[in-house]
TrEMBL record:
GO terms for biological process: regulation of DNA damage response, signal transduction by p53 class mediator; regulation of transcription by RNA polymerase II. Pfam families: SET (PF00856). InterPro entries: KMT5A, SET_dom, SET_dom_sf. It comes from the Eukaryota. It comes from Sinocyclocheilus anshuiensis. One of its GO terms (molecular function) is histone H4K20 methyltransferase activity. Residues 39-166 form the SET domain. This is SET domain-containing protein. SUPFAM superfamilies: SET domain. GO terms for cellular component: nucleus; polytene chromosome.
């Protein structure tokens, strides 16, 4: 009976869970995407592997972590970049817009034109097919396509975030990707 917590202490220390899955039209999503001020993330250098994104706070399953931010180009332009320059190919995100157009977000520049003083987190997220903890979802912020990364499970402080790039699937380059708008 010594290891049983007092119910009053448990209730006093309880905090409600953070918001899960903010709606696509949410003001906070628009603000964070526009300003690129995603909280709870930090960049860390891993020797020989470059920058990686690590959490500085816990995230709940389904919570929006950050976005993939880049220049919007056509699918054909993205495929051309992929074929001609393999170093830039890792910073392409193919999808189909709500108008049915095949598009690509291209983020090979470390700093984008709209955020010249910031390195965006989504660009630095590493690939993992087996240890993934994020899932990309297509959203529209003021009719502009935005790829949001959402936690697929609870993520602890200090954990590296990863998603499956899908580049080993037949659906790579936007054919059949499950990025249905939410």
């Amino acid at each position: 009976m010594e290891n049983v917590p007092d119910a009053a202490e448990v209730v006093k220390d309880w905090k409600p869970p953070r918001s899960i899955q903010a709606p696509a039209g949410s003001k906070s999503i628009r603000r964070m995407s526009r300003r690129q001020c995603w909280k709870g993330l930090q960049l860390m250098d891993r020797e020989g592997k470059g920058l990686r994104v690590v959490t500085s706070r816990p995230f709940a399953c389904g919570e929006v972590i950050c976005d993939f931010h880049g220049r919007l180009i056509s699918r054909d332009e993205g495929l051309e970049i992929q074929q001609n320059n393999q170093t830039q190919a890792g910073h392409l995100f193919f999808f189909t817009s709500k108008n049915g157009l095949d598009m690509c977000l291209e983020a090979h520049e470390e700093r984008c034109a709209c955020h010249p003083n910031k390195t965006t987190f989504g660009r630095q997220i590493k690939h993992s097919a087996k240890r993934t903890n994020l899932s990309p979802r297509l959203h529209f912020v003021e009719d502009d396509p935005v790829i949001l990364f959402m936690a697929t499970r609870d993520i602890q402080t200090g954990e590296e975030i990863r998603y499956d790039y899908g580049d080993h699937r037949r659906s790579y380059a936007g054919d059949g990707l499950d990025l249905t708008p939410s």
